[in-house]
Write a structure and sequence with these properties.
This protein is α/β, with parallel strands linked by helices and about 300 residues long. The chain has 2 domains: about 160 residues, Rossmann fold (3-Layer(aba) Sandwich), CATH 3.40.50.2020; about 140 residues, 3-Layer(aba) Sandwich (Rossmann fold). The chain contains 8 helices and 14 strands. A hairpin with a 5-residue loop joins β2 and β3. The radius of gyration is 20 Å and the shape is globular.
Amino acid sequence: MTDVKLFSGTTSKYLAEKIVDYYGLPLGRLKTQQFSDGEMQANIQESVRGAYTFFIQSTYAPSDNLMELLLMIDAARRASAGYIVAVIPYYGYARQDRKDKPRVAIGAKLIANLLIAAGANRIMTMDLHADQIQGFFDIPVDHLRSEAIFFPYLEEQDTSNVIFASPDVGSTKRARAYAQHFQTGLVICDKYRKKANEVAEMTVIGEVTGKDVILVDDIIDTAGTLCRAAKILIEKGANSVRAFCTHPVLSGPAYDRLEASEHLSELVVTDTLPLQKTCSKIKVVSAAKLFSRAIRNTHEHRSISALFIED
């Protein structure tokens, strides 16, 4: 079987180190040089000729993270790597998946084009903002599900009085998967925005009186929607409100909002993105083991969906 080489971008090394620890291989030697004007150059410092080569890097802000990933992939292609997989725990620009107004870019498709042009043979990611982004690629996409991490975490707790909620209509499918798995009810918080990152109005569809509500979403950015939903759910009679969100973007006033919220008791996230600050309400559950198993299954030509889809 061909060799496996695992490399990490600069800002995802905290996660890559945990992934390779589960996998049982050291991180490959790679150096990213930055010139005084900010230009980067990626240099793979060991042979990858003919090898299954995995590059681990989330493409969150700043855009240097994306550029570094593209340069690493290009370097591997020019070094005759046998098969190149971009492991992108958090796929940035995924919220730009369509033209929702005139004369706007479809950023998710542009990033897909760039990754393919750089030389990626396969993409591995988790909880895309919209499932249809997989169709932007003309190469295989392994779309991992955070349910494989969150379900076992919840199964260790008492869920007899739990009901699941979607903080907006777009997350309904995700929340329904939790409700079906735990055989409980589903509530939808319908929000209306006047502009990005600012919720104008929100209404609750469903009954939450006396229930312990768990909000489910893929991304938490400024935490405005989540904190607003938690407040409304408590006002509607919920006993408590927690949230499970895969990608902790947590920009702008997010940390302050979470700490100040009297209604949200806990936020459980994965480590696809690093936390920029500490917060007493945030609990991190690692995605490293899931990615390690997915990488091994890819190399050994075994099923990826078997890691998170029940028979």
